[in-house]
Amino acid sequence: MTAAILPAAARLTSAHTRRQRRRLAVVAGAAFTLALAAIAGLAAGAVAIPPGAVLAALAGVGNDAVAAAVVVDLRLPRVLTGCLVGAALAVAGAAMQGLFRNPLADPGLVGVSSGAALGAVFVIVVLGDAAAPSRPLLLPFAAFLGALLATVVIQRLATFDGRTTTAMLLLAGIAINAIAGAGLGLAAFFSTDQQLRDLTFWTLGSLAGTDLRVLWTAAFAMLAAVLGLALFGRVLDACLLGEREAAHLGVDVERSKLMLIALVALGTGAAVAAAGIIGFVGLVVPHLARLLVGADHRWLMVVSALLGAALLLVADIAARLIVLPAELPIGILTSALGGPFFLALLLANRRRFAV
Amino acid sequence: MLIAERLGVVVGRRWLLDGVTLTVRPGELVVVLGPNGAGKSTLLACLSGALPPSSGSITIDGRRLADVPATDLARRRAVVAQTNVVTMPIHAEEVVTLGRMPHEERAAHTRNVVAAAMAAADADDFIGRVVPTLSGGEQQRVHLARALAQVWPEDLSRTRYLLLDEPTSSLDLAHQAQVMATARSLAESGYGVLAILHDLNLAAATADRLALLDDGRLVADGKPDEVLTPATISHVFGVTADVVERPDGRGPLIVPRVPAHCPSRIGQWSLS
Amino acid sequence: MCVRSRLTLLLAVAAFVWPAHAAERLVAIGGDVTEIVFELGAGDRLVAVDSTSRHPEAADALPDVGYLRRLAAEPIVALQPDLVIASAASGPPIVLDQLRGAGLEVVMISDGPNVSGVVTKIGEVGRALGLEREAATLGAAVREDVERVQVALGAIAGRPRVLFMLDIGRGAPLAGGLETSAASIIELAGGRNAIEGFSGYKPLSQEAAIAAMPDVVLVPTRTLDAFGGAAGLFARPELRASPAAAERRVVAMDSLLLLGFGPRPGEAVTTLAGALHPELVVAAP
């Protein structure tokens, strides 16, 4: 018996080695891309600062006060926000797609981001100035609750008997986006002028206006969500076979689902709290990552996090340079990129999704 | 032993299973037969632990199924579902490797088991292939390999069970025979194997025992030649059939009679 | 440490040598603020404005740093202005903080949608630019313009009901309720705001429009164009039966002049009052 299976084992080993090498190369490439994007994010902008001065400003040894302020106070927080938000959205997207076994599950598309935005807006408009002092904590928390509610509703609606249908997933998304849209409209109707000003931030995402106090809370939550979701890689792999099959493999599916939903909501909620609604990152990036490393979630999560961060940084650089001296909302750029991508995805899969 | 006693499953007012008692012994290949909607898949879902029965009890090696921890259960029994559509680009050997999830072991050992299981299910040609690009039958073999890997006989200290829901439905003739031969040899090496089949002759040729379900009830349970009689076939499937001996002498051979003049329903209704 | 103290010294010297009015590179945020800067004769010092600054034409031609509520810090820093003069409506707040953090001087201009608010605004802009005298003159002129209209209006008894409508491109047009700049300019021009049920600008339901019984409809020029002129406006079901439709009384004005409460409320009030009361005679200045 051993002799008979040896060729298979050898082939398995060589296939495994080849794949592992390829995946390591992809991770290295993605990390390199992210590093380049981060450097570009620190070096590029309306104010021309020579690379040496950027480094000096980062090291805190420069004597150019304006360069220091621009690099440390303006660009650095943007780059950090972009990294975290991009990684959180991409990893949340990858986890949702694995959980629902559907490449169209995206936190923005199915309404999780809108739910989060509604939560944040609730804090601004309904609680109003009374809640202002505790906003840095309250805002991400409310965004998390909004995202959680939306995710639970979607999960309940779209998954029946362990299977998720694309049609129900997207229809549930339409319904939730509509409800959240109504909520946002209602909030806009009742808000004061000052509140309305804050609201526009949530509906068109931006990395520029993040309140640093909100960012700290949100950064912690996003980091926790990304790391937490990465731990579920094996479970998500098993879920690719179907919920019942995962259970047969000894996975506590119900508990895992609860944890995954909570972590997806945490990541998306914190990302929205920090930067508003930025669409399509969770759709485009995991898909790209899957093309590069396959569906093994432990690799998929790592590559998604790196590429998500890089994509958002590049989009942000474009957003700040295209219409100088003004700035484009970054959500417009990601949607301009993601919309056609979504259509292409539908086109490529229309036979499968037409059920 | 995997023992189901007076199993009942009720959905709404309909009893999908009603008082089914069935035992799967180690070293035995039991094939469940029955017409569509007889409750075969429901029975398998109960036995696998996926569906808690409304009444009755299931025990595995003397313990109530519901009390066995999930990982422990996963090391004892594997399940191949009827349809299994993997839509994401995952490689065949990665799917099979998932079968080793319940086991804590060195990667090298996992690789050996996966290679052996893939060879046993004749799925080793698919190493390096992405599952959604395989045909239905090829995918079925990959999933069988995954189940084999899950309960691969590394030590004989515990009994293992394999539950297969129509494992041959998408397979060509050669692979149907091969899968059932694998199931047989596993049974002979001490596994308890339960398979749902539609092909009465394949069942009769390979099974130690047949369990015949009809409308949620167990109507016959025994050796193939005891169960597959013209009377039961007519009663359960509504088909008149001749039962003859196989040329190789292994069990009965069922030859359904096709009426010479099948009353056609086409043209029965006027379209105008 | 040494660097910082030297920098502080440098800044202190700079502040001493160049008084505030020497600000030569201005960025103005907010249409009203920009207009005041031009009225005070400092338009040539502007290097950029926001997207709401459309008047006068010279402002429209300047580089645009984006919508006043969605500013970005770095492009403004890159313009190296020595003063950013921003309407209270500017934001987000964090960006204003970032501008200050980058060493820019940011002056916020208050936002009162009425005549004394305008005079205050003019004073604040004047102080920021070191043009106090010019500001005082302009402020007095604004007050005087408006007062002349008030005096003339004293001789007239009628106060027509005026409905202000603003098309925003989708859904029902907005109407100006209580506490809006539209309401206060209507009041100053000798009219009564036809909407008393809500405050702020809200979507106008057709029935509420009918109940408002407007004698005159007041719209920004662009809205009238969007409705298809007076004919289109009075063909709308909510206005068809109104007294305004019967006499086809519609007043169209530039929206910035009407709502911005820039330095020309005298002009706005005079124009509107003349339209509401054709018999009105305002004394020449």
Question: Which structural traits does this protein have?
Answer:
heterotrimer; B: 272 residues; alpha/beta; 4-stranded antiparallel beta sheet; 32% helix; C: 285 residues; 15 helices; disordered N terminus
Number of strands of chain B: 12
- Helical/strand content category of chain C: alpha/beta
- Strand content bin of chain B: 25-35%
| End-to-end C-alpha gap of chain B | 62 Å
| Pair with the biggest interface | A-B, 38 and 41 residues
Major sheet details of chain C: 6 strands, mixed
Question: Globular, elongated, flat, extended or rod-shaped: what is the shape of chain C?
Answer: globular
Shape call of chain B: globular
Task: Walk me through what this model shows.
The complex is a heterotrimer of chains A (355), B (272) and C (285). Chain A is 79% helix and 1% strand. With 355 residues, chain A is mainly α. Chain A has a two-stranded antiparallel sheet with strand order 1-2. Chain A is globular, with a radius of gyration of 21 Å. Chain B is of the alpha/beta class and 272 residues long. Chain B contains nine helices and twelve strands. In chain B, the strands form three sheets. Chain B has a six-stranded mixed sheet with strand order 6-7-8-3-9-10, sandwiched between helices. A four-stranded antiparallel sheet of chain B has the order 2-1-4-5, with helices on one face. The radius of gyration of chain B is 20 Å and the shape is globular. By secondary structure, chain C is an alpha/beta fold. Helix content of chain C is 48%, strand content 14%. Chain C has helices spanning 2-17, 31-39, 57-60, 73-78, 93-101, 115-129, 132-154, 181-188, 206-212, 221-227, 229-235, 237-240, 243-246, 255-259, 265-276, and strands at residues 26-29, 46-49, 83-87, 106-109, 161-166, 174-176, 192-193, 201-203, 216-220, 250-253. In chain C, the strands form two sheets. In chain C, strands 5, 6, 7, 8, 9 and 10 form a six-stranded mixed sheet that branches. In chain C, helix 2 (31-39) links the parallel strand 1 and strand 2. Chain C is globular. Classes of the chains: A mainly alpha (355), B alpha/beta (272), C alpha/beta (285). Chains A and B meet through helix 1, helix 9 and helix 10 of A and helix 2, helix 3, helix 4 and helix 5 of B.
